[in-house]
């Protein structure tokens, strides 16, 4: 559907290469595998090898984007996140939109973003293309394929924090990321190491989740069918929401609906905008999530034994239903608000997982229970230090070239 409008071969691309993403092969992959293909296709490029974190984001916030047909990032999910922030923020700035107001109606941005996978997880590329192969992505970019994607905004106390396109994770995935940042020198294996440490710590966090169910969508997180190119659920949502303006009207309709409340102790709170498939989890955290249906799959993993949590995690890696467990709930939502039990002002410090490595002795003891400090959110691989957040689908379709 959107492809008819946007299936235009790009002629001039702005390329950002993160030389330090994943196995630090970004520049090599681009020079050897991608640049020759772009040259053959007569695509001109301006290539920027990033010199520091947020280089791409800051450059995009200033540069005149009208001369480009698209932006390409060579790196992982963190690089894609930088690029999407630069692009969305510049578009809102030009349109005079206040991003701190969660109710602001964002303006869609016209440029498409392509990913050449060269990161550690490459979840966004994997979930959209089905494989993280630089040549496949380059060919999609060359022929002008496109894929709309849902974007969610994350706010804290009416302050804009970040946009998310793949996974927002509190508890387990927040803690894994926090710990893994200290071990970047390990390369992609840092996630295995920190994952193991975090699993042993078995921390759960108390709080309240308020969510607004997505009632107007055709799909359900427990569906057998998967979102692919031309997906009828996304097409239906696209037509229903009329891609931009009418979506906002529907949001107001939805706001009149009932908010639901879930209180408890959680090992993980995950919000998936897409399946979040990657090589370690080929079906993803929410296998039936849609790329562009205007919803978020909210997955709540309540406090359970370490053995049961392991069963849930193992199901991420195989075809067994990870939601078919008594301590796991999943809802398809338009919006949610999380409030931790312990206010952030009282929060002593972001916890050090290392100190809690043997937390099992405490958490299994009836007198102990949950951590009295908060976790942090993992937002597409970037840390959000606030625990209390308001997350909503922001009706914003940013198009990927590699779809
Ligand atoms: N030149 C640079 N020096 C240091 N950090 C950089 C540089 N360029 C980009 N970054 C930052 O590096 C972080 C990680 O990059 P990237 O996502 O490409 O790799 P990754 O973390 O290994 O992969 P993934 O996100 O898929 O797990 C990003 O948050 C980005 O802001």
From TrEMBL:
SUPFAM superfamilies to which the protein is assigned, alphabetical: NAD kinase/diacylglycerol kinase-like
GO BP of this protein: ceramide metabolic process
Domain spans labelled DAGKc: 8-158
Single GO term (MF): ceramide kinase activity
A single GO cellular-component term on record: membrane
Domain of life: Eukaryota
InterPro entries xref list: ATP-NAD_kinase_N (IPR017438), CERK_C (IPR045363), Diacylglycerol_kinase_cat_dom (IPR001206), Lipid_Phosphate_FormReg (IPR050187), NAD/diacylglycerol_kinase_sf (IPR016064)
Protein name as catalogued: Ceramide kinase
Gene name per UniProt: cerk
